[in-house]
Design goal:
The chain has 24 helices and 21 strands. Helix content is 45%, strand content 13%. The protein starts with a helix and ends in an 8-residue tail after the last helix. Catalyzes the transfer of the acyl group of long-chain fatty acid-CoA conjugates onto carnitine, an essential step for the mitochondrial uptake of long-chain fatty acids and their subsequent beta-oxidation in the mitochondrion.
């Protein structure tokens, strides 16, 4: 009762004498501390926004310019060529502004103007430098002088430590490629997949599209690219992600695993507390813009636009399209355990709760004996089923009363936490352990994941930051508990209240049936490949990613006896507001190499193909075809009615199934510890479900020099796929390709 009393800050009483109002002293203190915290956050944001705006300059460089100008004037050398005198002449006359003060003010004004001009010049130069992408197309292990010089200049320009958005305004816009080039690259990508007759038919369609429909649509794309930061990002988000009506679970979400060989603590509440606190520390640095941007080659910044939606973001269902609800801040966490939902406050006295306090709160939830309310336990199954039934149920049963209050608490939380009842992934060497762990993370019981671990439309928190902070910065006591002493006066977590009618329970059960059918159909094979890793591959002067992509092509050919349209996730984040893009890694070079592997003689073509077969991976297929398709179905005057050709081409192109969908998980986006010193603290990566019903989904992570972890998914219902079989084919393909580098090339013909 004492804890409940602490939670009541405001008290109103109605007496015959009138209305009584009481504000507790603790409430006043909490309001004061919250106000101080809010103003501190605003000041830090303002400071970092200023530093971001003048990057690569700094306030100290402004002082240098002012002092240098003043010193020159003292030595009777006018660097302004008379501008300082003109500024001084324009200043108002008064007793306070003596000639000496006027000289100082005019010098500072001129110096500031010169400094700002230099800032604009350097930022323009930075944009020109970032427009160079020649480094992407150079052979692995060999770098031209031009690229070396470019890297040296970039290092000089970014010598000052950048903040998250320091390069944002200097990134170039995504260019609109010529239609001719887009069509040519598309035909090149489908040539190895089509026989001669089908290819000639597609070539004729593409030519008709290029000559009749495309020019008018292309003009609109160029016009849009002039007045928008990125001409495709808004369409990509809406039509590729938010308009999908199928379940998000398995189809759109993905997961990330824990450390592979070690578990920092087996105390569930303590581990959850450290992980949550780590994520909140990341969120605070993100809000302040203090996280360095992701860099390629250590000098090429990537767009940070999506980072702001890592937290406080919810995908709200709609009948035709979903929407993203993003809040500037959220001070609580939504927690699920044994069919009950809780709201946990993350701040006390304007400060983040330390791990010890969070452990106490989570332990209170774990020890709560209360049963779920009617319909509460499986409520989240609504988010795992079809989107339209969830939108209808949300509008009908959760738009008013206690249900709306409870749902708002979940949707407006910083993020969602599930405290499971079972452990997974504790024995990675045991057959089937990693597979069950993957299924648990991807879909759980279909009602305890709130739609999934993470969605493709929202960027994730880098797992490396979370895991490294948990282990190396926060740490645990010898008993596995969080360090520090909890404050027992904290109010306990708030149990969310629901009033779900029988019709609502029926809607939940209907969505659960859909979700379970989808989840039970997913077949996983997760395995460790430790025969060799990127160390050996790099010594062969080959890109590790290209090597693995070639192995996947070979494995798929051996698995099905044919090639298929292959999706490899890449990024256009070298441009402003860039997102994920597609590399069609099944190319003419790669298919020629795979076919040559069937030759027992292992000809020179096979020997050289391991390097030459990766040429098609250097650039992603431009998103122009997606944009033209969306544009043709929009309300622009030159849309569908004026462009009948696009209706025959783009639907056929965009409806082709990705029977092999692949993605690499980056190992260490943030350098927080040395893998050489802590080899047990490698992550086993993450994965996703298959994109096509008769296809495979493959995710892989390259850990250190001698370990690659694969996550293979498919569907049991397809007689053409088997994740275990495909996993064996991947292992053998990796070994066979590596064997080519151990032998000299055969003599030329």
């Amino acid at each position: 009762m004492a804890e409940a009393h602490q939670a009541v800050a405001f008290q109103f009483t109605v007496t015959p004498e009138g209305l009584g109002f009481h504000l507790s002293r603790e409430a006043v203190r909490q309001l004061y501390l919250a106000a101080i915290h809010s103003w501190k956050k605003r000041l830090v944001r303002a400071k970092n926004s200023f530093l971001t705006g003048v990057y690569p300059a700094s306030p100290s460089s402004w002082m240098v310019v002012v002092m240098a100008t003043a010193g020159s004037c003292y030595c009777q050398v006018d660097p302004s060529l008379g501008l300082i005198a003109r500024i001084q002449h324009c200043l108002p006359r008064s007793e306070a502004l003596t000639p000496q003060v006027q000289t100082v003010v005019s010098t500072v004004v001129f110096s500031t103007g010169a400094w700002l001009a230099a800032v604009l010049l350097f930022r323009r130069l930075l944009r020109l430098l970032l427009s160079y992408h020649g480094w992407m197309f150079e052979p692995h292990g060999r770098m031209s002088r031009r690229t070396r010089l470019w890297i040296a200049v970039m290092k000089i320009m970014s010598i000052r430590k950048p903040l998250l958005y320091s390069f944002q305004s200097s990134l170039p816009k995504l260019p609109v490629p010529p239609v001719k080039a887009t069509v040519a690259r598309y035909l090149e990508s489908v040539r190895p997949l089509l026989d001669d007759d089908k290819y000639r038919e597609m070539e004729a369609l593409a030519k008709e599209f290029q000559e009749k429909a495309a020019p008018r649509l292309q003009r609109y794309l160029r016009f849009k690219s002039w007045w928008t930061t990125n001409y495709v990002s808004d369409w990509w988000e809406e039509y590729v992600y938010l308009r999908g009506r199928s379940p998000l679970m398995v189809n759109s979400n993905y997961y990330a695993m824990d450390f592979l060989y070690t578990t920092p603590s087996h105390v569930q509440a303590a581990r959850a507390a450290n992980v949550v606190h780590s994520m909140l520390l990341y969120r605070r640095r993100l809000d302040r813009g203090e996280i360095p941007p992701m860099m390629a080659l250590g000098v090429v910044p990537m767009c940070s636009y999506q980072s702001e939606r890592m937290f406080n973001t919810t995908r709200v269902p709609g009948k035709e399209t979903d929407t993203l609800l993003h809040l500037a801040d959220s001070k609580h966490l939504a927690v699920y355990h044994k069919g009950r939902y809780y709201k946990v406050w993350l701040y006390y006295g304007g400060q983040l709760l330390p791990p010890a306090d969070l452990e106490m709160q989570f332990q209170r939830i774990l020890e709560d004996p209360s049963p779920p309310q009617p319909g509460e336990e499986r409520l989240a199954a609504l988010t795992a089923g079809e989107r339209v039934p969830w939108a209808e149920a949300r509008a009908r049963f959760f738009s008013r009363g206690p249900n709306k209050v409870a749902l708002d608490a979940i949707e407006r939380a910083a993020f969602f936490l599930t405290l499971d009842e079972e452990e997974h992934g504790q024995e990675p060497a045991r057959p089937g352990c990693m597979d069950a762990y993957a299924k648990s993370l991807l879909h759980g019981r279909c009602y305890d994941r709130c739609g999934g671990v993470a969605l493709s439309s929202v960027p994730p928190v880098p797992p490396q930051f979370m895991l490294a902070t948990d282990t190396f910065q926060l740490g645990y006591t010898e008993g596995g508990h969080c360090k520090g002493d909890p404050r027992w006066q904290l109010a306990p977590p708030q149990r969310l209240q629901w009033d779900i009618p029988p019709e609502g329970v029926a809607a939940i059960e209907a969505s659960l049936r859909v979700a379970r059918a989808l989840a039970e159909d997913v077949d996983f094979c997760c395995f460790l490949f430790s025969t060799f890793g990127k160390g050996l591959i790099k010594r062969c002067r080959t890109s590790p990613d290209a090597f693995i992509q070639i192995a996947l092509q070979l494995a798929h050919f051996r698995d099905k006896g044919s090639f298929c349209l292959t999706y490899e996730a890449s990024m256009t984040r070298l441009f402003r507001e860039g997102r994920t893009e597609t590399v069609r890694s099944c190319t003419s070079e790669s298919t020629a190499f795979v076919r040559s592997m069937a030759d027992s003689q292992r000809s020179r073509a096979a020997h050289g193909g391991a390097r030459e077969g990766t040429a098609g991976y250097k650039g992603a297929l431009p998103p122009t075809l997606v944009s033209l398709h969306v544009e043709s179905h929009s309300g622009v005057p030159w849309g569908t009615a004026g462009c009948p050709g696009v209706q025959r081409v783009t639907p056929q192109v965009l409806s082709e199934p990705w029977r092999l969908s692949t993605s690499q998980t980056p190992q260490q986006q943030l350098k927080m510890f040395d893998f050489e010193k802590f080899p047990d603290h490698v992550s086993s990566g993450g994965g996703f479900g298959p994109v096509a019903d008769d296809g495979y989904g493959v995710s892989y992570i390259i850990s250190g020099e001698n370990l690659i972890t694969f996550h293979v998914s498919s569907k049991f219902s397809s007689p053409e796929t088997d994740s275990q079989r495909f996993g064996r084919n991947i292992r053998q393909a990796m070994l066979d390709i590596a064997a080519l580098f151990d032998k000299p090339a055969p003599a030329g013909r």
